[in-house]
Design brief:
The protein has 372 residues and is of the alpha+beta class. The protein has 2 domains: 219 residues, no CATH class; 149 residues. Helix content is 40%, strand content 23%. It is built from 13 helices and 13 strands. Strands 1-4-5-6-7-8-9-10-11-12-13-2-3 form a 13-stranded mixed beta sheet. Strand 9 and strand 10 form a beta hairpin. Helix 5 packs parallel to helix 10, helix 6 crosses helix 10 and helix 9 packs across helix 10. The two termini are 26 Å apart.
Amino acid sequence: MIARSCGHRIAASALGVIVNGRSLIPILIATSVSCCSPPLALAEGSFLQPNTSATTTRHIILRPDESRFRMLPVTNYVNTAFDTAQVSGAFSQDDYWENHGRVLDRLADPINSIEDDGGWDHLVSQELLSSHVLPNLTLHLLGNGYDFRALAEWFDEHDVPFPYLCAFVTSYAGYLGNEAVEVSNPEIDATDNIADLYFFNLLGNLLFLSDTVTDVVHNDLEFRNWPGQPVFDVRHNEILNASNNYLLRPRMFGDKVRPFLYFGLHYFAGLSVSLQSEESLSLGVGLAAVDPFADSILDTVRASGGIYWDDDDRLLASMIFNGTDDSIVRVNLYPDVFRFQTVDLGVFLGAAGDGVPTFGIAIEKLLTLGVS
């Protein structure tokens, strides 16, 4: 994943089916997300009525009343698949569906793919014995595993049979899209795809089958995902504002002030301060990935920072300065800040270094339009 690729530079500074008809790939990916989802009307209505039937899945992460969970399989797919696209200087959304075929070709014959791209020594040294291992563990294993468990709880809440299987398929569909965006850059070799999807993602999913692991990560470490609000840019036919952003806020020193660690394609450290009621204000400074393949390590990142306002872990608003793209500031207002009863409405605004604005509106997490 690019988070791994970018994370490497920041730290230092099965799916084996060949689809001959590449036009079938969008259908397969869409099916992998939608086949496990109940009808949209049921999904929108049932989140207000928690499932009271017996369940074998303990719900630890899921909070059905939060806007970010209401259409989780769809929003998780988009945020995961297009997370890397926010580093627009290094990756492209062009040929998105065709690039799925390239990734599948590599995954279908992993042994030869590894040998063609440096061999086993290269894979081990790059993915396990270098600074790559930090983002591999924190993002592919921990972040992906956490999202996988949240998906399983969502499917169980909506009475979908085999919730863990549906979560596995949905999770891998998103990460297959993520790898498809990554291979738009020729610097990404097969060992990256194989290590991500065959090892770290799989291990993360298996770990979060455990209630104990999930409980420790979610409740003791206060691990969360504050995802982006993806919108479709009607002028350039691209997805904007998609991201998975993970944070740790353990209550090491009580409830008033907590350490704040934020990572994804931004790596921030700072403090989270309690405000009135259950609200908190978090401030972090650090680095944003801008070009993981630049010749100079200083050119791979730039100084960045963010401010986040939440209410009992519900992200209400965020502001990021000097992010992963060419924006100097980007503001997101999330649906939980508006609290409309009949519609989920989110807004994002951004300004590039040359003054060009970007804005978007997300309605019900399904109709999402943006302009840049």
